[in-house]
Amino acid sequence: MLRVALTSDAFLPIMDGVGRVVYEYACGLSARGHECYVVAPMDKSGYRGRLPFEIIDFVSRTLPAGLSHYRTGVATLDRHYLERVSLAEFDIVHAHSPGPAGMEAVRLAAKKQIPLIGTFHSKFYDDFYRATRSDTLATLGLRYVVDFFDRCDEVWTVSNYAAGVLREYGFKGRIEIVQNGVRTNLPDIDRQQSIRRAHEKYKLRDVPILLYVGQMDWKKNLHRILEAASLMYRAGYDFQLVFAGAGLDESDIRALAQTLLPEEYVCFAGFVGDDKDLLSLYYAAWLFVFPSDYDTAGLVVREAAIAGTGSVVLKDSAPSEVITHNQNGFICENTPESLANTILQALYDKERLREIGENARRTIPISWDSVLDEVQQRYTALLERTDFTRKRKRGLFRRELDALDHSLEKRTLELVRNFLKQDMQNIYAYDYNANVVDGRLPEINHKPLPRSTPEQQGLFSNDLLTLYREVSMDSEARVKAMLLVRNGHVVSEAYWAPYSGKLPCQLYSMSKSVTATAIGLLVDEGKLQLNERLVDIFSDKVADTNIHPMRACTVWHLLTMSTGARYNEVGSALGADWEREFLDGGVYFEAGTRFSYNSMNTYMLSAIVKRKTGQGLSDYLHPRLFEPLCITGFQWECCPRGIEKGGWGLMLRLEDVAKIGLLYLQKGIYMVDGAMRRILSRNWVEEATRCQIETPHAELTNGYGYQIWMTPYPGAYLFSGIFGQYMLAIPDKNALVAIFSCSSRLFAQGKLPDYIHRCLENASGEPLSPNPRTLSVLVSAQNMLSMANWQVKMPVMVMPLAWLIDTVAGTSFTFDKNIASVVPVILQSVRNNFSGGVSRVTFMPAGDQSLLIKIEEGDIENTLELHPQGFSYGEVCLRQDTYTVSCGMQYGLTPAGEAALRIFVYYIETPCTRVVTFIFGEKDVSAHWDEEPAVQDSMSMLMELAGITQIEMIKRLMPILKRGRIQVKLREYTTSNLTGALEGSRENEPG
Fold it and tell me: Which is deepest, 151, 200, 254, 946, by most CB within 10 Å?
């Protein structure tokens, strides 16, 4: 007789797949004369004494939203539980989940010195992500899961698919496949009578019945069933869809069903607890539909097969392991069209459908008796071993943080540590290198788009005037340049002083859409297929392409941000070989199953261009895109190995952005030398600008194409960059708007799209009557636009500039060690070019109407010239990086009688502005260094790009932080309050 402890975080009455397996193990082993105990969180319903085995439960509580149908607790805090479990004798502990019950399994096995088995059932990343909505926290949870299975003496999975998932999570030990069974002894009921029972009880119609049994949870891919059913309904097919189950998303699923299908086409049977009722539904079903890519076993597919009902499942899913297409079931792609076509083909020949159901009954089910025969043998063999693990009390990240010195997680923690210590010189793992591809070709080659008045292109000047008024009043939008194209003509453009359209500007993530265009050109040339695997393209970077965690990732997954790659933007600071780092980082979910925004996906697209052509993005695109569109003034930052970053780093003029947008708006054709020429295939443009993958938790929830966002407005799509760099194309109006801004607000959070669409509401397909008067007002309004309108005013009494010059000219102040710089922190971070801190600031006169400020940072000197009216222009250097800047200022006398000066240093080619406020005392100066976009917002974005947005995670990982100090740390990183000591005396005072 064996004495077995089965531990699970899901058990009665929560009968999900794991709970059902534990229940069958306990019942089956008890029936064989073994002594079984189930250790699980306590439920108020109570099941002790009602089952052929004993439940030793511990006090529990409901989990938070996202997992609220589950319960959890800490077993060792329940004294009554500890007393009961101490009286039980076990020979072996078998954990079916790695949560609190799994941790108790580790404790019991260590205390009693007995073997521990762990069975991997679930795609834990999906559950963690649903509960936290954070890739970072979900990935952190996977470290916990892998560490748990490392502690087990044997690790089992329920399918080869599940074994692959566990491998992708990072587990490297031995895995045994022990499949789940089903009850093959059916209730003694007549099949035809059972079918009538189902029709009567659930009010089924006399049409083909499509059945789903399982949790009513979106993770089961239920939207795919409803979308396919909607296609079938619209095509004129009659059927009835039956959902048997309950779950967290049931109300939302019902709502979507009501939207897509008439009421009589859908039946919600609820949770079916009676075996006879459930069997009657399996009998009544013509086809069992189970397109889940979440399940690692698919018990219900085996249950359906027992009843002789064939199933439709997804290609490469766990249930597909037991199905041969068109023999004992059906396999489809994960699209509504494929699922609908597969169902219709299956229903077309009812006799053939019966044969397939019979084949399913003979080949798919595995009885619990045969499974438990194997389980019993494995238990006995393990007990005969003497080498099972004895040391199980190890740290949560024992292996990852102690053994793998070069792991991504450990290097990330080191980066965070240096960040919080303000050790800016050691944040990156490699040295600064001014690696930029410079495409600043002669200006003579630049050909502007044709210009027109709004009325000539069917727009009202008054609507444009309203657009500019709304944008100018929206201080959070912080637009600095806007250009509107209609019918291929620029009908309006405006620049908020001191900005202009002459210089290229940093696009940030808008660069992604240009990189994807290069991929489209490669595909058009036949040099690349979207289904090519990364492990094949970069075979020199991987050891074994057949077992590599990223073996399923293709070019399509890169384009759609669905690789699941762990290596994200923070990785760009952690190592120089970004290709190898990306591939070695592994994945945290199965490729293609979820959208997860990650700029390193786009970098890999850039690397693919290099691999396929031998040219970098800039050289490849120059004759194919930039030259035909007359784009001449570009720059593109490169990685440490000289490959363009792809996902960011491109600089273009606003009009150049509009040109690329116009290429897409015109379905890939463009006017070159007076004739329309095809640059990009129509097919690529249409595929790139339609929803390829859903984005339910992203900034824009309308879907994502090939590095292009879908918007809430039908047909409209968006190139988007952080801090408000946009190209919004509106095909039904044959219009686009290109925008550069300095906003810390995301596109979906702002009102810009509303302003734009209101402006275009009245657009006409024909020219309108000229309106010179309103057009003149529009031009005047555009000429008056200025960033100065958004400057925060100092509470000072305004004084003449001569007074300020007389007060501060000739003074020099020295500062102790600090991290302040005239260059905004975000620009330093993006370029891995950090200042050593401001050491001296000197104020000098430049005639009666100007003031010079010399700012020294180590051996670097920058001098800014300030004028009382308008903006001055100059340059700021930090090592080899040179920035064009424009300066504005405010000054006056504070209520305390001190001179005050605030300078605004606009980095013309970026969204960034450095704001420094000086308050002059008798022998010192206080200097407050800030930047816009706002410090908190810009740092939140940086942390989000780094994958460390969750403050609670940082608190857990970084014990040096005191509670509540994280925001202070973030602000200290980008702002500095310095006090400078007066050096020497003023020139106009006696020595």
Answer: 151
